[in-house]
């Protein structure tokens, strides 16, 4: 399905809230990054508790420096979660499953199932390998293989009975950049990645980006695929 035919969603929290209960929940987010959605979730549902797990040490330090009621941060990875069995009602993986090493994706989905209670859910939101933003990023970070592997890992977990799928949804979310410097800082110089671009590659990325640049910057519609999984039991 082409991005132009998908519904535009300005806030993914609305999608999440429409698919699963968020009130009074024990939630874990694997690969929380800066935890933007987690913080917004607790602002809307303050009776819930959320644990954000992040592998990048610099981002984890930033998270710890900005505490919020009901939100705790721990360093770790999805394939080895420091939590007891059936600790959480809901797990979130927001654009993070494809960052798990391919060889560890199956283990990560098993590990998440371990820490989610029977009847609990896993919300997996993954970028679709399509769209203008994808074309800009591809010259230095082609994620075609890892994104396909993430979907294949979910399919394998379903076939193995580790999870069952209860819902799925495709949509686009807007990604706005004020200019190329903003894009470079947010999309190339992330602390969790090591994108050392050659001058020619950086010039090509700039050229592709500036094709979408207007007086107010550049806005891309990134296509997303959400799959809501339920732990049997």
What characteristics describe this protein?
34% helix; Rossmann fold; 233 residues; 7 strands
Write the layout of secondary structure elements.
Elements: H1 12-19, E1 26-30, H2 36-44, E2 49-54, H3 57-64, E3 71-75, E4 88-94, H4 105-115, E5 116-127, H5 132-137, H6 144-159, E6 164-177, H7 180-188, H8 199-210, E7 218-230
Parallel strand pairs: 1-2, 1-4, 2-3, 4-5
Antiparallel strand pairs: 5-7, 6-7
Structure description:
With 233 residues, the chain is an alpha/beta fold. The chain has one domain: Rossmann fold (3-Layer(aba) Sandwich), CATH 3.40.50.150. The chain contains 8 helices and 7 strands. The chain has helices at 12-19, 36-44, 57-64, 105-115, 132-137, 144-159, 180-188, 199-210, and strands at 26-30, 49-54, 71-75, 88-94, 116-127, 164-177, 218-230. Helix 3 (57-64) links the parallel strand 2 and strand 3 (71-75). Helix 4 crosses helix 6 (144-159). The longest helix is centred in the middle third of the chain and has 16 residues, at 144-159. The protein is globular. The two termini are 34 Å apart. The model has no long low-confidence stretch (mean pLDDT 96).
């Amino acid at each position: 399905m082409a991005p132009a035919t998908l519904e535009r969603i300005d806030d993914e929290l609305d999608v999440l809230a429409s698919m699963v209960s968020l009130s009074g929940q024990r939630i874990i987010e694997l690969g929380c990054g800066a935890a933007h959605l987690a913080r917004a979730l607790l602002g809307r549902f303050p009776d819930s508790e959320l644990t954000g797990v992040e592998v990048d040490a610099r981002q984890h330090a930033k998270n710890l420096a900005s505490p919020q009621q009901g939100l705790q941060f721990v360093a770790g990875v999805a394939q080895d979660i420091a939590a007891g069995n059936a600790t959480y009602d809901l797990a979130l993986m927001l654009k993070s499953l494809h960052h798990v090493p391919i060889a560890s994706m199956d283990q990560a989905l098993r590990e998440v199932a371990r820490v989610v209670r029977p009847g609990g859910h896993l919300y997996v939101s993954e970028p679709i390998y399509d769209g203008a933003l994808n074309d800009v990023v591809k010259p230095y970070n082609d994620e075609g293989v890892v994104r396909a592997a993430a979907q294949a890992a979910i399919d394998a977990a379903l076939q193995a009975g580790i999870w069952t799928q209860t819902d799925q949804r495709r949509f686009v979310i807007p990604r706005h950049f004020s200019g190329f410097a903003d894009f470079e800082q947010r999309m190339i110089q992330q602390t969790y990645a090591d994108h050392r671009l050659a001058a020619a590659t950086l010039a090509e990325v700039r050229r592709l980006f500036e094709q979408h640049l207007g007086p107010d910057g550049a806005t891309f519609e990134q296509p997303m695929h959400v799959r809501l999984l339920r732990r049997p039991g």
